[in-house]
Amino acid sequence: MILVTGGLGYLGSHIALDLMSRGHEVVLVDNLSQSSMPMLERLEYNTNLYIPFIRMDVRNTPVLQKVFEQYPIDYVIHTAGFKSVNESVLRPLDYYNNNQGCLMSVLRAMQRSGVKRLVNLSSAMVYGQSGEKFKEDDEFHVKHQNPYVRAQQQNEQILHDVFRADDYWQISNLRLSNVVGAYTDSKIGEWVAPLPKSVLLNILQVAAQQRDIFELYHQDLDTQDGSSERDFIHVMDVVNAVYKLMIWSNNQQNFLENFNLGSSQLTSILQLIQQVETVTKANITQQPYPEITEEFAQVGINIEKIQQTIDWKPEQDLAQAITDQWNFYQKSLGLVDH
Fold it and tell me: Which stretches make up the NAD-dependent epimerase/dehydratase domain (predicted)?
């Protein structure tokens, strides 16, 4: 049985549905701070299964320990955590407390239960600087002041220290680029909060006339059009990579491996807006907005390691991801038939 933390969140729910579609049993835990109960209903509707779900804060180790005692868990996929670079500047204590607290609690509960197979979802922002093709063995820029970046860097150090003290673990640490899109046929998608943190969801809100303008941070960066450039990957490519890594780990000895996971293509925010306009046939009104934190001009990654390790490659492009996410968003607003 596979435990998915943050199991009703964007990544957790997509991973869970994919695993169940392949015949695996899952148990989900989530505190609903960045998700909602209707996602559980959608998962159960699409699978026609009862899905064990426990509403809890993953940082509560004694309660999490009881989940391990109640269910025959042999693998953990850890997706729980805060993920907004900008918000972390305003809420640094929350980000350090939540992101590090969640990981340490998961590791404690796993260690006490003898479960030592983990997929941890990290971020390509962990490199802490601007760059086009970061490789897994590139050193982090540890002096960057953003709390989210520093928390992710420290989480990876925690994983390293745990493995060094006890090498009986199998740990796949995934440094994700910007994940976009929705599940095949829009069965599920990203829950849209009134003030979403995802750049694509903010743009789609304008397309759906849920907000008037898109606030464009930084237009004077060292890029071709002045806006920041990011790597975007379809969520279905992510869930496919997660599953392939789990299968690969069945034939491995103990390990701690870092993997970059993205499309290996950079897209600027202005280019993203243009693609959204093409897909949605809407005009995205923009307005310059003062940034509260330092912005990386480019965050690009080299994905050769994961391609060679599990024979994986991204199969869906950004236009498809935008189309899928737009279709799900319209369904959630009741603008098209379910």
Answer: 2-252
